[in-house]
Structures
1.
Amino acid sequence: MQIESTRNTKVDATNLFQTALRQNFNPALYRKSQKPKWSRFKLKFNYRDGNESTHFSYDWNPDYSTGVKKYRDDEQMGFSKLILLIGKNRDNDTYNIATIYMTVSIKKDTSVQDYDIPVAYIQRGKDIKIEPRLKYTPENKVRLELFKTL
């Protein structure tokens, strides 16, 4: 599956994952992030000890293309960052399953629990599996019409 980043360079999702595996990651430096108000994707880690943790994608990213800092809704970059987070946490060898869920809601409100479509899945020691229907518009938003027929 090809992901096109905001810099118009094609990046393969599996290459992103492999890059994260090769990076040196210190879990002591990882800090918990706050829950955003709006998010298209949710990452859920299921750990070996029975616990689980949830991380949301940050879809509002700064854009400096005009010389002025503006925020734009970039769902593709938010998904890519969650893939990198899975790869960084893989070195800890503490989770069994990591799953990225997506919502088809237009509002993308994180207080509503409607993240019910799994789009990426990885089990400890295996390769990542990404939903082949996950496509993006030229504005880096998910093409929701491909998922509303479920």
Note: The chain has one domain: 9-24+37-146.
2.
Amino acid sequence: MTKDIKIGLIMNPEEGLKFFGLEEVNNLLSKGEKIIKIEPEGAILEEVSRDSEGIEVELNGFALIVKLEDN
């Protein structure tokens, strides 16, 4: 059976860098699961402003999908 775990990084000027999903992946690896594929998930964007001309966003991070397989 395979599992998909979302991992990534969020960049915040006040809080600094915040990783997510890594602990879950590491726990599964320690139990013998294997990574079979890493796929892009996308950018993490935050809306900065919105007006009649459009929306301004800033890049705040990214996410990946880690596919794991039971050993």
Note: The beta strands are 2-12, 16-20, 34-51, 54-69.
